[in-house]
Amino acid sequence: MHKCPSGAAVLIPAMQAHLTNQHCWNSLPSPSVREAASMYSTAVAIFLVILVAALQSSEPPESPFPYHIPLDPDGILELSWNISYVQETIHFLLQVQGLRAGVLFGMSDRGELENADLIMLWTDGNRSYFADAWSDQKGQIHLDAQQDYQLLQVQRTSDGLSLLFKRPFVTCDPKDYLIEDDTVHLVYGILEEPFQSLEAINTSGLHTGLQRVQLLKSEVPTPDMPADVQTMEIRAPDVLIPDHETTYWCYVTELPQDFSRHHIIMYEAVVTEGNEALVHHMEVFQCAAEFKSFPHFNGPCDSKMKPDRLNYCRHVLAAWALGAKAFYYPEEAGVAFGGLGSSRYLRLEVHYHNPRNIRGRHDSSGIRLYYTATLRQFNAGIMELGLVYTPVMAIPPQETAFVLTGYCTDKCTMLALPPSGIRIFASQLHTHLTGRKVVTVLARGGQERKVVNRDNHYSPHFQEIRMLKKVVSVFPGDVLITSCTYNTEDRKLATVGGFGILEEMCVNYVHYYPQTELELCKSAVNDGYLQKYFHQVNSFNNEEVCTCPQASVPEQFTSVPWNSYNRDMLKALYRFAPISMHCNKTSAVRFQGEWNLQPLPEITSTLKDPTPNCPTGQAVSHTNPTTVVNWGRG
Amino acid sequence: MHKCPSGAAVLIPAMQAHLTNQHCWNSLPSPSVREAASMYSTAVAIFLVILVAALQSSEPPESPFPYHIPLDPDGILELSWNISYVQETIHFLLQVQGLRAGVLFGMSDRGELENADLIMLWTDGNRSYFADAWSDQKGQIHLDAQQDYQLLQVQRTSDGLSLLFKRPFVTCDPKDYLIEDDTVHLVYGILEEPFQSLEAINTSGLHTGLQRVQLLKSEVPTPDMPADVQTMEIRAPDVLIPDHETTYWCYVTELPQDFSRHHIIMYEAVVTEGNEALVHHMEVFQCAAEFKSFPHFNGPCDSKMKPDRLNYCRHVLAAWALGAKAFYYPEEAGVAFGGLGSSRYLRLEVHYHNPRNIRGRHDSSGIRLYYTATLRQFNAGIMELGLVYTPVMAIPPQETAFVLTGYCTDKCTMLALPPSGIRIFASQLHTHLTGRKVVTVLARGGQERKVVNRDNHYSPHFQEIRMLKKVVSVFPGDVLITSCTYNTEDRKLATVGGFGILEEMCVNYVHYYPQTELELCKSAVNDGYLQKYFHQVNSFNNEEVCTCPQASVPEQFTSVPWNSYNRDMLKALYRFAPISMHCNKTSAVRFQGEWNLQPLPEITSTLKDPTPNCPTGQAVSHTNPTTVVNWGRG
């Protein structure tokens, strides 16, 4: 099965018990505190030549790693990993092409190289070291007091080196990142020259970067594909990837004439070989049924040539982002497409991320749909939770963490959901550029019960559909509360809600079955109360917020003097004022009822953040009481 | 030195290394998990007789415990302790008179028996056990997963039992109380009968109580007394302690005619023997110099017979509370009293706490002043920081943790402090009944620099002068920020600032030297801005807060409809609006300058709560990097 090439693999002896098939090593240097400088020879270039020459080719071990992601746009670093939910541990395999003097890899809050949780592989020109480390506010590297990344194997490969190491999700080392279900900002760096000590390294001097990924993926078992499954690829034909950092490519295609109603039951990305690090995310949208036809556009989405009608191709059929695997619908449900009452037109959107401005690269990436004519028991649907796209919900400028909240009220779920409820199995969070966190919580009887989906490290640049680890049932009378946290430090004026890229959204697209008529369950503050707020601002500040009918809400927000009092009052208003509900069948058709001036849902108990359990191996625990003395008997 | 009576002391062997002079034991039962029920004999009464009979008298060990406090008003439980700041550990000696079936002792947030951190000594009628435990929200006892209280010795005494055990300040067990510098609410309970298991015990069925104390006292070395030191006792003559729970006794006395200027350099409590558990706190006040004489009153402070003029006896000379030891002034400073320009009249106030309504107890407790005619280099002074006593600072009803903040601004310290600054060496925090936390922070250059004094477990029933562990120097231009946190859950109307017991205060009396003219450095929100707030309340709610000149501020606060918006707006107002400063020589005389409509001090960086270090014995730590492989050489 697994060969042990001579002189190739090194295994640290203390870690031996954790490995099964890879008991290969030849030298066992005893661990040493060689932080102090050893005499550093000048011949760095020679050292590197020797290093590379000393490594012979060998076969990589059979891969037990289901997940892969390129870290850098040049494909020098590739990360593979697997997850043990039982041991709450991740094994990482980091493959490095053409290793120079070392690498760093790790995680940080939002991808910065300061205050990062790192592993370091470095050489002082003489010996080489591996350590669990951290970078401080200035980017300087320090050794962690507690070593939680365990190196399991170092192996040379045909074109570089591979490192195998593991880490618990939770380490309880205050210098370590807490690995949770949400987006993780991975950071990496390449060391071009030896360093005399770990403390001599500063991340600012290195070639570094970041990559976003969900590390702790849902491992719900995938249903078998039926015998009659068919596939269809929605791919842009031979796109010449533009040589600038960000391109959204739009391509319109259509289903065959007379294509009858089918169920999509799975889809996956098809990425042109060699472009893995350039294709950032892709989505397939279905166009609106109200238009008979759509122009066959193929070009950048921001092109002046793009027909306006393409704005009506917004209904998500499939979405993929870097690092995501195939998306399987639950075995009892599928997404209906084709047939009467639905548009034959589809729009593919591909986000190319080309920071190195690589030229001349051709691409035909896209999404492969797996579908069946044998309809499943339930249609799967998508429901939009969060905030209505309206300027009444606004974020003052210069805020680091301003929260806006949208509600799906009990009154709406009571009307629109079947008595047996719906089951949410996946979720896609969405904001524009200032979004930093998104969470949807389910409340019942005034009490928060569970988190539907949460991303405390949300990035608007990384929006993927995520399978939930546990399906969430929602019944009539339940409330769904979606909160988004925004950072407007770089804005000079208020950011209002709306469709524009410089406006904001707060949306959770939840995927569920059985499909209902409810497409939209969102809220916004009542406009009359917002006008009272503007009046109050005027009364306190003697400033001129125009409260005449001619002034638009964005204009009114623009003229608010943003002192701390007006900021705090706006927060208080959003926590207090009645809301207007959109409890809609489609974006234009409401369920019957009074939806204006609705009371905010009353929540009497909120969910607490779970206290992470520190790994049991690390904490001393006595569970027996101590016997004192036999009082009762002699 | 220390005798080992046969059959008396029991030492758990694992703890032996921690003891020095007390290696005495006769039986060493092996630790056992006798949680499961053993057959419980019915003869509880007989068991108790046997228990008491089995214990013979022995001498207590020589006391290495500088601190003592009775826990219960009947004097059944007495706690002694010492502190090792090097090991961050407290040794406790708990002495129990006439032990029945066990005791519990511990700490909780505010003295409640639920969610408490406990030690339990109990018997199942057969064997007896000691454990580190905790009580849940319902008062049920559970064993801690981590045992942090270590039992060192159990010894019978002539009239009961003594337990010696220790605990680190910080355990990092989430079920344990974090012992900090501030007030600690000790809880105790007496077990009257055996329990089959720890889990069978609920605190609600026990005779329990609480006692407040500062456990981590300042251990600043005490200066030697000069040869010419004299003493004077300020004691009420033969008070018959009233048989109700709370009495404040007032007694006026006077210094001898022609008593010249002296320095008080130390004082201590003199408590009548037998009344140690009844005398809760005592203060000596100097009366105002502006009145030539004061009536010689001797009676309850709330008596209708008490002359009004005693309200002018408010300048604190000495203050003692239960558990406090002698108070020493720094060797270079003393409090001036006597001589020209100061009143000869003193008022002693004694708070008797008599919850058992004991009758017929006589008392002559008081305070003994140590003073010298050889004046020290500096006069010590007291400065009042915090909020002006004015209704403009108010707390809405039904708040669990509402914060009010008072400022001593840079403008005032610039005017009033000498270039070499002042040194604060002690502090007494003060609020009325709803106060729960008090803190004063020093800021310099817009940045919070250090905590002057903080009590996160402050109780208005326990106000003692505390020596600071480190003297804090304050220079011209520094800002002192005093914040109080209030709980008004039991109030139906707003609580406004003022002198009344149902009104509130937020004060830190800081003791410092050299004395300056600055007696008061406090603030309150500007009244004009508060009126703007009332206008806003009206504009939003269409409610009637009278904003006419006839309405007093308390009346205005009473008519505010307290919804979340008005609460949040008031908080925002106090965070935003300009302040009026009292930068005063005495309560009536201001320093020259404009003190109205002052900007709030701008604070750009705040102090972070220190992360407590978990005890090193408990946490696994690796500090060495792991050597990977000798890349460079062969």
UniProtKB/TrEMBL annotation, chains A, B:
Topology within the bilayer: Single-pass type II membrane protein
PROSITE patterns linked: CU2_MONOOXYGENASE_1, DOMON
UniProt keyword annotation of NADP present: no
S-adenosyl-L-methionine listed as a keyword: no
EC number assigned by the record: 1.14.17.1
Gene Ontology molecular-function annotations: copper ion binding; dopamine beta-monooxygenase activity; L-ascorbic acid binding
InterPro entries: Cu2_ascorb_mOase-like_C, Cu2_ascorb_mOase_CS-1, Cu2_ascorb_mOase_N, Cu2_ascorb_mOase_N_sf, Cu2_monoox_C, DBH-like, DOH_DOMON, DOMON_domain
GO CC annotations, alphabetized: chromaffin granule lumen; chromaffin granule membrane; extracellular space
Known catalytic reactions: dopamine + 2 L-ascorbate + O2 = (R)-noradrenaline + 2 monodehydro-L-ascorbate radical + H2O
Cofactor: Cu(2+)
Enzyme class, first EC level, given as a word: oxidoreductase
Swiss-Prot/TrEMBL keywords: Catecholamine biosynthesis, Copper, Disulfide bond, Glycoprotein, Membrane, Metal-binding, Monooxygenase, Oxidoreductase, Transmembrane, Transmembrane helix, Vitamin C
Region (Disordered): 613-634
UniProt-annotated location(s): Cytoplasmic vesicle, Secretory vesicle, Chromaffin granule lumen; Cytoplasmic vesicle, Secretory vesicle, Chromaffin granule membrane
Biological process (GO), any one: octopamine biosynthetic process
Involved pathway(s): Catecholamine biosynthesis; (R)-noradrenaline biosynthesis; (R)-noradrenaline from dopamine: step 1/1
Domain DOMON: 75-191
Family membership: Belongs to the copper type II ascorbate-dependent monooxygenase family.
Described purpose of this protein according to its UniProt entry: Catalyzes the hydroxylation of dopamine to noradrenaline (also known as norepinephrine), and is thus vital for regulation of these neurotransmitters.
Assembly information from the UniProt record: Homotetramer; composed of two disulfide-linked dimers.
Protein's name in the database: Dopamine beta-hydroxylase
Organism from which the protein derives: Mesocricetus auratus
